[in-house]
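Please review this one:
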Amino acid sequence: PIAVSAVGLSPSDQIIDYKPGASYDLGIEVININFDPVGATLFVDGSMKENVVITPRNFVVPARSSVHADIRIEMPKTPLTPGWHIIYVAATEGSPDLVTGGTGIGTVVTVKAAIYFFIPYPGKYAEISSFIVPDTNLGDNLDIELKIKNAGKDAINLLDGYIELSVEDKVVKSIPVFTT
């Protein structure tokens, strides 16, 4: 017989706040939408995998059901590189025959969920999060939308600079940008 299985993880992604040396307790559901039980093994991938413990790691998910697993993340006390970091929690599903002790050829499916955390840059660090310039006709007003986010540790109270409009690498207009 041909066996088709389907396993999923919920939530598919999570965001946590980074604090050096902090511990985080999260959970994840391994979901089986099949009509037969499915064996599953959880594992961690990414640069922080040594800092993550999952319990249980190996189990059978009953038919049309789910099993909860606990995730414990221990952040290192030493500083990490600024920017976004991702920890992947993955579930590898075995062939349904593995659950019943049968033999045969089957498939193995792996699904991943992501846990994201952001480490701010030192000092002031502005990033453009959105820059929208709509199409316009010559002579019409042009509404430009620019959103800037602070990705640094220190507050940014004032922004100033210029938006330069160019045609074929030649600046034709320079527009001052500032906040008060």
Notes: Residues 32 and 65 are 6 Å apart (CA to CA). The radius of gyration is 25 Å. DSSP finds one helix and 13 strands in the chain. The first strand starts at residue 7 and ends at 10.
